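Input record, target 12 of the design panel.
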């Protein structure tokens, strides 16, 4: 087994990136929002963060991650629009939201830009539930959308439509999501949404989405940030075509010589040797560290 297998995990844990929520803006590997145009959700290959911009996928293709009505108490960390609290525009805690009647706690861009960086109480303007199509007002990062309390409009396209995703409940230390989903925490806590779990060796993400690891090395379905083929240099974890992931370029030095960027690599099964010649299937995890269901997960790489 190559020692670089764990370095892949280290890359995931080594930094953070910003979820550019608007109709323009991509995230760099060092966490800055570059403001360039984007055709999809850009996620840096370091820590879990997503961009909801310009996805070409059908917003209705995302399976519901759970229904949140917003009428539960704030003590258990769930969203509530009926708890007496701050007025419109007041800062709020997404894990224990306290907003006045008719308001909900929502992520927004405090500078009016393309990246969510704070949360505030906003008007409840619709009744779209998780899994349903939704609309945003003013901009993708305004915090004003048609989702019910306890959900946010994410994966927003240039036409201002997206999909309602359930917000995580519980606490930052012990987040709770419906079965089959994982809490995707990003933008320094401004965005905490439940996204569908996936098997990187299976084809179980919604159409057009990609299966990538987050900072905790859990595999989740995210909107694509690109459609780069295998062996392409990449900046973002989800910049590659489905079935691929942007990971360490040291595994494919002949086609990805720039070690400051990642490389689009193909998932493989270490038992099946299912990589095209002359590539070999190198374990994704260091020996003894893989979850039982992912012990056979690897990446097609050039031989050392």
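The sequence produced for target 12 reads:
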């Amino acid at each position: 087994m190559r020692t670089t297998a764990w370095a892949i995990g280290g890359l995931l844990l080594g930094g953070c990136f910003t979820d550019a929520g608007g109709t323009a803006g991509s995230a760099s590997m060092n966490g800055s929002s570059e403001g360039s145009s984007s055709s999809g959700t850009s996620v840096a290959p370091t820590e879990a963060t997503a961009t909801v911009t310009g996805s070409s996928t059908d917003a209705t293709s995302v399976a519901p991650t759970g229904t949140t009505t917003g009428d539960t108490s704030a003590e258990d960390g769930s969203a509530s629009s009926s708890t007496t609290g701050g007025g419109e525009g007041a800062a709020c805690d997404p894990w224990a939201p306290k907003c006045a009647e008719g308001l909900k706690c929502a992520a927004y861009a405090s500078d009016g830009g393309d990246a969510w960086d704070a949360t505030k109480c906003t008007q409840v303007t619709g009744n779209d539930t998780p899994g349903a199509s939704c609309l945003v007002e003013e901009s993708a990062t305004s915090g004003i959308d048609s989702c019910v309390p306890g959900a946010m409009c994410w994966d927003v396209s240039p036409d201002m439509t997206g999909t309602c995703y359930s917000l995580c409940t519980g606490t930052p230390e012990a987040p709770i999501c419906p079965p089959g989903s994982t809490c995707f925490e990003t933008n320094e806590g401004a965005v905490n949404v439940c996204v569908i779990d996936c098997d990187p060796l299976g084809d179980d993400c919604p159409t057009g989405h990609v299966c990538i690891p987050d900072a905790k090395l859990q595999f989740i379905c995210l909107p694509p940030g690109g459609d780069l083929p295998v062996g392409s240099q990449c900046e973002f974890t989800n910049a590659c075509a489905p079935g691929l992931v942007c990971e360490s370029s040291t595994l494919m030095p002949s086609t990805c010589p720039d070690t400051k960027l990642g490389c689009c690599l193909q998932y493989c099964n270490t038992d099946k040797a299912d990589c095209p010649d002359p590539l070999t299937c190198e374990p994704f995890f260091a020996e003894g560290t893989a979850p039982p269901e992912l012990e056979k997960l690897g990446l097609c790489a050039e031989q050392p």
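The CA atoms of residues 54 and 158 lie 5 Å apart.
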